[in-house]
Amino acid sequence: MKKAQLAVRMGTSVAVVAGCLSGAACSASTSALTPSTPAPVSSSAAVPASPSTPPTPSAEPTTASPSPTGPPKFSAKVSRVTRKQLPYSWRPGCPVPVQDLRLITMSYWGFDDKPHTGELVVNKDGTDAIVNVFGRLYDWRWPIYKMQLVDAYKGSDFDSIEADNTSAFNCRPATGSSSWSQHAYGRAVDINPRENPYVSADGSLAHKNARKFGTRPLDAPGVINPGDRVVKAFAKVGWGWGGIWSGAKDFQHFSESGG
């Protein structure tokens, strides 16, 4: 009896094994023995970045080298003048009415080697000539000591000369005469009167501070000499120089008439 049961059990095991080999029931068991295929790499997996090209260094900021700044160009403004602006240099009875005079505000080059702005009053028909010549003087860096209206000296020609002031209009008689000066018409200008003094026929000078400038030719800043470029510049606009008069010499003086 026991031998018959053992035979039945063995037969059952063999049948199970045989069924496993031919059926799907073994798939789970055999899959454990089959090598697994590696899973594909996800596209989201990190990929080592290739070395980036180092950025090109930006150029160092450059500072423009400062360009030398020269002095301002010559400028001149011509405007009408009022009676109030001429409290001492004009008065009733003068040979020219105020409405025929003009104020010129313009550049001049100083003895300190710097540009300045000064004022002259001249006749309206002389403005172009004066602007032309003084523009040349400025461009040449030819020095002028001071340029104010003679009214700053209460109309005193003597005080204006003592201050070495360049001026034009002043309603006064000519030196040593009872006749009107060309200055009274606004058609004359005196430039650097200390360096270019009025010298009497006997060689005397009224201003002590000008004594060393009483002869010509003379090489010094702001001095006018016979035939020099200042004289020629005025000659080009039709103005004559007092330095060529016979007898007395007026080295500072230029006028439309030459007198």
TrEMBL record:
Residues 175-255 form the Peptidase M15C domain. One of its GO terms (molecular function) is carboxypeptidase activity. Coiled coil: none annotated. Keywords: Carboxypeptidase, Hydrolase, Protease, Signal. The keyword Signal applies. InterPro entries: Peptidase_M15C, Zn_M74/Hedgehog-like. Residues 31-50 have a biased composition (Low complexity). This is D-alanyl-D-alanine carboxypeptidase. It comes from Streptosporangium subroseum.
